[in-house]
Design a protein that fits this description.
Elements (H helix, E strand, L loop, with lengths): L2 H12 L1 H8 L2 E5 L3 H13 L3 E5 L23 H12 L4 E5 L8 H4 L5 E4 L4 H14 L4 E5 L12 E6 L2 E5 L13 H19 L6
Parallel strand pairs: 1-2, 1-4, 2-3, 4-5, 5-7
Antiparallel strand pairs: 6-7
Helix pairs in contact: 1-2, 3-7
Length: 209
């Protein structure tokens, strides 16, 4: 299969104008767990031109219930294991990987080429850190964050909300693994799909809400 054949297939499904916008976009994903790995799969299938994938962690057996990794990936850096799978889906996207811990110092550099960043961290302090960094130091970047996808409550309670002009929040904004309700693949994937849909609509110049 050639590059031309691949993109002609995407154009047939998405339309030429939409696909040109997708192909010219660069999106960052901060955290490659249940949210981030699923977001990456969705965006690769859209034909996003460049994905910047960042996570310091390695694949653990406890990740396999909801994250896009395989038993064969155990022990590998998530960024590299995910890139390998994404290349099998869309070999014509540019995948830039960073197996480092994201901080307020390195986020602006790592995601410097990105128009949109998806926040997909687990911990509240990390979420707060990247939100403050992006909104304060990356004036032209839009942040799409996830909060609240734990448990087995209705998927219909997961929504997308505009918090600020450059900040969108996806999730039920309530459920928390700390409450003992667990993280289940379907509900996590629904939240990831909300984030990927918000990215899609923003690239197309449409409101995500």
């Amino acid at each position: 299969m050639t590059r031309e054949e691949y993109f002609n297939a995407l154009i047939e499904r998405h339309g030429k104008e939409a696909q040109e916008k997708f192909s010219n976009a660069a999106v960052g994903i901060a955290g490659l767990g249940g949210l981030g790995s699923n977001i990456a799969f969705f965006l690769a299938r859209l034909g996003i031109g460049k994905l910047v994938l960042a996570d310091f962690d390695r694949v653990d057996v406890t990740n396999l219930n909801r994250q896009q990794y395989r038993v064969a990936d155990l022990g590998r850096y998530k960024a590299e294991a995910l890139k390998e799978q994404l290349l099998g889906i869309n070999p014509y996207c540019v995948y830039e990987t960073h197996s480092v811990k994201l901080t307020e110092e390195n986020i602006p550099e790592i995601f410097s080429e990105c128009d949109i960043i998806c926040e997909a961290f687990d911990k509240a302090d990390q979420k707060a850190m990247i939100t403050e960094t992006v909104l304060s130091d990356m004036k032209n970047v839009i942040l799409v964050s996830g909060s609240g996808m734990a448990g087995t409550d209705s998927a219909n309670k997961i929504t997308t909300r505009k918090v600020m002009s450059r900040f969108y929040l996806c999730g039920d904004e309530k459920s928390d693994i700390a409450d003992g309700c667990g993280l289940m693949a379907p509900r996590v994937a629904v939240c990831a799909a909300h984030q990927a849909t918000a990215v899609m609509k923003l690239i197309l110049g449409q409101s995500p809400v």
